[in-house]
Amino acid sequence: MGWFSRRGSRKGLAFPGRSDGPKMEIDRKAVEQHLRSFVESRLGVEAYVEPATSVTPTTIVLIAWDGEWTRRAVGSPKDGFEISQKLGVPVYDVNKTGYPNRMREWSKRRRQGDA
Questions:
Q1: What are phi and psi of 42, to 5 degrees?
Q2: How far apart are CA 35 and CA 46, in angstroms?
Q3: Can you give the pTM of this predicted structure?
Q4: Residue-range domain boundaries for the chain
């Protein structure tokens, strides 16, 4: 039996856990407190909701004007959008917008020890 002949048996199967991500306890109060602290101490913060993967649950990334960022698990995309609205920051679906270049540039500077 060849490789491609086996693919038909998987037809219609979903990837288990792919839509929900792994099951984990999320301390919502601690997450919101951390995110609020980030927003209050930085300028121009935007939120990006990341989908769950087979390894990680849905997360939210907050990115400041200079590219500094933080990431926290939020449970579901709906939770990510709701938290962002509570924080009063613009929110985007990262699958539709991608990440801003300033985030990559900030991470690159940190790796090089310039920040």
A1: -140, 160
A2: 11
A3: 0.77
A4: 16-112
